[in-house]
Protein: Yos1-like protein
Organism: Cardamine amara subsp. amara
Amino acid sequence: MSYVCPFIEFLNLIRQLCFPDSDHFELYASQGTMFFWTLIKGLLLFANALAILNEDRFLAPRGWTLGELHQTGRKNSAKGQIIGLIHACQYMRFPLMLINTVVILWKLVSG
């Protein structure tokens, strides 16, 4: 008996439920890479949106700074997790610029 990854089994189950006829699945499976690329670009745009938020002018008046988060001690709350994500995206601005440059060049070359 061979081992099959539970994630692969889950994907096969979804495939059987959504596409009972295998001919239709092959049509949509070829678009899977396009979906993945669109998802990556969407996540990159979201990270860019979080990276450009100004902490002094936008986040501080609303109480969404790391300093206030440390004062209240609510690091594991939903608000704390979002503040941490915003701070991480702002911290990673230079790698985001490099990734944006690579994506722009890739889109220029590939069309």
